[in-house]
Amino acid sequence: MQQIDFRRMHPTDIPTVMQIEESIYEFPWTKGIFTDCIRVGYDCWVATLEDMIIAYGVLSSAAQESHVLNLATRHTHQHQGIGRQFLHHLIDIARLKSSEIVLLEVRPSNQAAIKLYESTGFNEIGCRKAYYPAPNGKEDALIFALQL
């Protein structure tokens, strides 16, 4: 497994984050969403390898609950354990914030992410109908939770 470094996301990182976001998602977040997440104080992080941003994640925490809002790895660095390292990093942050549970949503079509979450101890607890935009309408979101 490669040694990656984590640091807080800076506004100057957003163009690179957007390049990754737009290259891996059919319906990407906007620059404004990332800017707002930093502005309101969410835990926005990037993972770097030799000073190149290879992954990023956004975590919101309140009332003993944390929510993984976004977690993505550069296409060229997927399937190398980086997403797993990053997920553990976000879980550690949730613990530091005294969260009792970590929540996230995932598309049922994203089987790689589902396998990652399940292997990390997350359990499916529900479904949000027609949550995500999709080419032919909307796709549901599976809700996963990890008790800390």
Features:
148 residues, alpha+beta, Aminopeptidase, 7-stranded mixed beta sheet, 7 strands
Describe the global form: globular
The termini sit apart by 25 Å
Q: Low-confidence parts, pLDDT < 50 over ≥5 residues?
A: none
* Strand residue content: 35-45%
Helix content: 25-40%
Task: Using the coordinates shown, work out and report the CATH topology.
Answer: Aminopeptidase
Number of strands: 7
Rg (C-alpha, Å): 15 Å
Give a concise summary:
This protein has 148 residues and is α+β, with helices and mostly antiparallel strands. It contains four helices and seven strands. The chain has a seven-stranded mixed beta sheet, sandwiched between helices.
Q: How would you sum up this structure, described in words?
A:
The protein has one domain (5-147): Gcn5-related N-acetyltransferase (GNAT) (Aminopeptidase). The longest helix is centred in the middle third of the chain and has 15 residues, at 82-96. With 148 residues, the chain is of the alpha+beta class. Helix 3 links the parallel strand 4 and strand 5. It has helices at 14-24, 31-39, 82-96, 111-119; strands at 5-8, 43-49, 52-62, 65-73, 101-106, 123-134, 137-147. The protein has a seven-stranded mixed beta sheet with strand order 1-2-3-4-5-7-6, sandwiched between helices. The protein is globular.
